[in-house]
Design brief:
single chain; alpha+beta; Diaminopimelate Epimerase, Chain A, domain 1; 2 domains; 18-stranded mixed β-sheet; 6 helices; 18% helix
């Protein structure tokens, strides 16, 4: 990698307030060869040391829909799917004027993903107190299939989650995470994870979820812990909702959800499960908090 300026932005995703939601660094690369420099990209992600650093490279395609290569890195590894960094990348492209379109296509390790700008004038199906203020971005992601996780003794996982009472455990296919359902939304918010013990549990990380309190205006709460991936707690995890939507659709008998990730930063996701096409639509907002230039 030769020394030259690489433009970057730090964006808080799934929030309309700075310093909430989940931060992601978005780096815009000009040359295809840079997007294949894995060691350099991982080093930059370690330098940012936030949940995800993503890299965009334009793909000339001669159509009206702009297309970009998109890759995602935690501080220690590349991942196959990331919702909040895709939202951050989309917000950056839309808000900076780098694209002249309301739709963007991303070529990723999980196939072609789309992002669509949803302006207040065309926003529909608002619910749970959602307003039309500001611009939403809708992401079209694959469903993350879940399977039964058969384990006779749940004490290891229970202990890793600080003694939380567990009522169900599944396993996700794309992420390879455990989806652990606990007794209440308050259990999710008050959870005291034992990170050293989570590292020893099966799977990449642990998604914890429960039905939200009725007065909250949300359908379900979640949190996500992934110390193996260099993220002790991910503030808001879009990709986890590709499995959560499937799980809660079967339990609640509905396909539209207002979801809250109850990390200390917190974040709101509007989720729709398209079961027929096996897609999950994630809608959220984002805020740019920083921009600059990488010199190496």
């Amino acid at each position: 990698m030769t020394k030259k300026g690489v433009k970057y932005w730090v964006v808080d995703a799934f929030t309309d307030s700075a310093f909430k939601g989940n931060p992601a660094a978005v780096c815009l690369l000009e040359e295809e060869e840079d997007s294949n420099n894995d060691k350099w990209m991982q080093s930059i992600a370690a330098e940012f040391n936030i949940s995800e650093t993503c890299y965009l490279t334009p793909i000339p395609n001669g159509t009206s829909i702009p297309r970009f290569h998109l890759r995602w890195f935690t501080p220690v590894t590349e991942v196959n799917l990331c919702g909040h960094a895709t939202l951050a990348a989309s917000h950056t492209l839309f808000s900076s004027g780098l694209v002249d379109s309301d739709i963007i296509e991303f070529v990723t390790l999980s196939g072609v993903l789309t992002a669509k700008k949803v302006t207040p004038a065309i926003a529909s199906n608002l619910h749970h107190g959602e307003t039309q203020d500001g611009c939403y971005i809708k992401l079209d992601f694959p469903v993350d299939p879940i399977t039964d996780f058969n384990i006779a003794d749940t004490s290891q996982i229970c202990d890793a989650l600080g003694g939380a009472s567990i009522i169900d455990i599944k396993r996700t296919q794309i992420g390879g995470d455990l989806l652990v359902v606990v007794t209440s939304g308050s259990t999710v918010t008050e959870l005291q994870p034992q990170l050293d013990a989570i590292v020893k549990c099966p799977g990449r990380g642990i998604i914890v979820s429960a039905i939200a309190p009725p007065e909250s205006g949300f359908d379900f709460y979640s949190r996500f812990f992934c110390p193996k991936g260099g993220i002790n707690e991910d503030p808001v995890t879009g990709s986890a909702h590709c499995a959560l939507a499937l799980y809660w659709s079967k339990k609640l008998g509905k396909s539209d959800f207002n979801a809250y990730q109850a990390s200390p930063r917190g974040g709101v996701l509007k989720v729709h499960l398209d079961e027929q096409n096996q897609r999950v639509l994630l809608r959220g907002k984002a805020v740019t908090v920083m921009e600059g230039c990488l010199l190496v």
